[in-house]
Design a protein that fits this description.
heterodimer; A: mainly alpha; Four Helix Bundle (Hemerythrin (Met), subunit A); 9 helices; 84% helix; elongated; B: mainly alpha; 3 helices; 0% strand; rod-shaped
Amino acid sequence: MIVQADILKVFLYLGAALSTGIASLSAGYGEGFAAAHTARAMMRQPNANNNLTRTMLISQAIVESGAIFALVISMLLLFGGFTSRETDWAKAFSLLGAGLAIGLGCTGPNFGSGYSAGMAIDGIARNPSKSGRITANMLIGQAITESGTIFSLVISLLLLYTVPAQMEDPTLMKIIVKSCAYLTAGLVIGIGTFGPGAGIGYVAGKANISISKHSKDQGLITRTMFLGAAVSESTAIYALVVAFLLIFVS
Amino acid sequence: MDPNTTQILASGIAKGAAFLGAGICMGIGALGPGVGEGYVAGKACEGVARSPEQAGLITRTMLIGQAVSESTGIYSLVIALLLIFTTS
């Protein structure tokens, strides 16, 4: 059940392309959303341009992190030496799954982080004196949002490095089942983190704008944000559990 | 193909399709609850900011709404686990 070297390259190249391609789409949108809101905020509060620019750059760096993870996985797929060993079909599908996991997986978190950043910048434009508090809350919210990206990165790395190049006593049945399981592990964490990522981003964005309006209730708002984000995160954790089961138990 | 190989191929494809189904079920099933619960929590943040004295009531309503919204996510998890463990 050894995959021909040229066929293995199809999996590697497709995985690398999908990983960075899909990730860049959402990262570009998120950063653009933050920058567009910054431009509008500058118009309203030209005097706060230092704070606005700083917050925009910090938030864009965080949104970018998902795309950077995807780039790293792409580079590993292309130059990680996976073509040098003889590989069976299950490993080939796990390489494609690794690309899909991080590519799809940072989509939702990037949209969410971008929304959170845009709302934080709107908040600073409304109330520049509270920019420190708003930025702090934005960073907390984005950190929770990005957890989906980290889950995807974990699954990608597991698929790249813990799946053996050739399984012991391969049978036709085992190869087919394992191939499906590894490809699906990438898909489940990739699609599964979209909803929680976008949802938590919405929570964090609304919390940022609420703090700018009523900054004396910041503790209460941050607490509500944490509670809501934790419940919203649960479905991402279900997806992570299913991905682990598919990799290790199947 | 001899009948034995066909039999192995068929059962392999069936189990593989069960795994694929489990992943797609949990993946897409997580989309709705995630977005919906996030929307609830975002609106709750706005509500708490506007009338902080009602924070307890708003948080309670938020949690009830999220619990109902979560149910479809749990259905997806159950179906995914059934597909992984009970199919052969």
